[in-house]
Amino acid sequence: MSKRDFIESRALLDEALSTEPDNFEAKYTLAVLNRAEGHTDKAKTLLKALVEEKPDFGRGFQELALCELALKQESAAISAFEQAVEVDGSLIESWKFLATAYRRKGDSRAEQAVMQVEFLASLPQELRTVISYLAANRLGDAERLCRYFMQQNKTHVEGMRLMAEIATRTGVFDDAEFLLETVMELAPDHIEAEIQLAHVLLRRQRFHKAHKRVKDIYERSKNPSAQIQALYASVCFGVGENEEAIKTYQDMIRVSPNDPQLRVSLAHIYNATGESSKAVDLFKQAYGLKPDFGDAFWSLANTKSYRFTEEELAAMTDRVNAPSTPQLDKTQMHFALGKAYEDSKDYDTAFSHYQAGNTLKRETSNHSKEQLDIRISTQLDVCTAELFERLKDVGHDAPDPIFILGLPRAGSTLLEQILASHSKVDGTMELHDILDLAKRLRGRDKASDPSPRYPRILGELPTERFAQFGQQFIEDTRAYRGTAPYFIDKMPNNFFHIGLIKLILPNAKVIDARRHPMACCFSGYKQLFGEGQEFSYGLEEIGNYYRQYVDLMNHWDEVLPGFVLRVQHEDVIADLEGQVRRILNFCGLEFEESCVEFHKTKRTVRTPSAEQVRQPINKSGVDQWCNFESHLDPLKHALGPEILEAYGITPPA
Questions:
Q1: CATH of the domain spanning 135-321
Q2: What is the pTM of this model?
Q3: Do the first three CATH levels of 6-122 and 135-321 match, i.e. the same topology?
Q4: What are the DSSP calls for 202-263, one per residue?
Q5: Which of 44, 104, 167, 327 has the maximum number of C-beta atoms within 10 A of its C-beta?
Q6: Does 506 sit behind a cis peptide bond, omega within 30 degrees of 0 on the bond before it?
Q7: Which CATH number fits domain 369-646: 3.40.640.10, 3.40.50.720, 3.40.50.970, 3.40.50.300?
């Protein structure tokens, strides 16, 4: 094509498409060829189908814009160029056209477009390609190219910033934080890097550290951008300055009344602080502004108490069936529709939507059964009774932490609320500190390595390191606590690391929140999580995960007898005071009536159970899974006969 040998080009494309008719790149190239040959209408038709199929295809929107220009449709071209740069910020030709068009129209966005052109022009081609790969979520390609570039340019600021973005997206937050702190040392005035660092700190729940940075940015900005204002509101919420966060979002909504995301963000604060009616109103306003805004519908469903109207059901149904609705919004609305039909007792229709939502979500998840097997088997192999006997009492002696762990949707938020209602216990949140320590110990080993460095390194570390790790945990979590002598870490995934917890904090208390396997797994299957919990988007996957979790918890019981208290969710519902006394006794705390009246405790709750733990105990959710039992054979198969027999579950036919 570059040699204008269009006949040969078309012959090659025809051959490629005859063997691979769905080859996306070949279809895109055919559209480019059609435009080059002057068949602009054909090219435009092809491109519209491609960007509808893949709404994040920036090059497709750019090519569509060029078609519109050829057809002298400047307004449509500007719109397509804007869509192109929205999904792929590396498209310098699109930015150039927009800069010229905005300047000609006197549009205030011209300055930003010019700055983006200058920024991209200053970058080596390799880094522009990395930006494009990131826009297309081709993380492996982005990392390979960026690493290659950085080997020759070790202190390139933008290269480090992109490496940090790759590390963030792949969950290696330690590396991302280190890279961005290095950028800030090399370029102290690099506001974009500082904002990026604040986002990483938020992802790591380093709220106080993030708040300090962002407040400084906010106060030194004469006219803070919407991005900085939203970030400031987020960090204020993170450190419990809820009134300041609410005020900031309210100010932003007054300036940008048509932005639905601002209303959803504000609603989440109201929901977490118990003002659910305000949250519901804002969620409704958000989908009123953007009818296919799946996050607003799912957030309504996720209050657990909202009931959708017939009009809302019809609107969501129309949107999930519309080809133009983005996949994420479809996913969110399928989960919301599942909740709505379950509430109306149409269980078959509800399951069809839960299944559709999970199927869409699974396409973008990265759960690996093989990696889970490695994580469990290495803990079983390394964390033996002999190891704990040899390293007895080497950790920090602080008794402060109470770890509540297990699987999501197993009742851990209820146990946290009960304990946080005690005068000597501070509730915090799902802290990432133990997970981060495990990642640091694993080093650069990949999760798929058959013999990863962690937990193997636990048997090789100098003994004094365990006390250091324990003391660091106490110091790093101090910011989340009040003045009570004990505090809760409610990270469910800490069940993988009970051995590590025992070694660094031998006097900690660990509570395993356990729930009936069918109830727990199906409740997880119905839940669209904000992030993580990738195992929950398939019945077989979640059943296998539950079985592996039980195996590992049995192992901890065997090698660390008495270290973990198992609390069955159904027992708490059946005998609240009896279980409260049992839990408090395990934690060395005297009985307080406030723990039984936990629903009266005023505190911020950030999990999907926020509304439920503000109500007295009720039994309505115990057997909900039974309504769907005819659909759950794959889950039963994955759980296996031992678990089915232990809970008296009817095996699949």
A1: 1.25.40.10
A2: 0.82
A3: yes
A4: HHTT-HHHHHHHHHHHHHH-SS--HHHHHHHHHHHHHTT-HHHHHHHHHHHHHH-TT-HHHH
A5: 44
A6: no
A7: 3.40.50.300
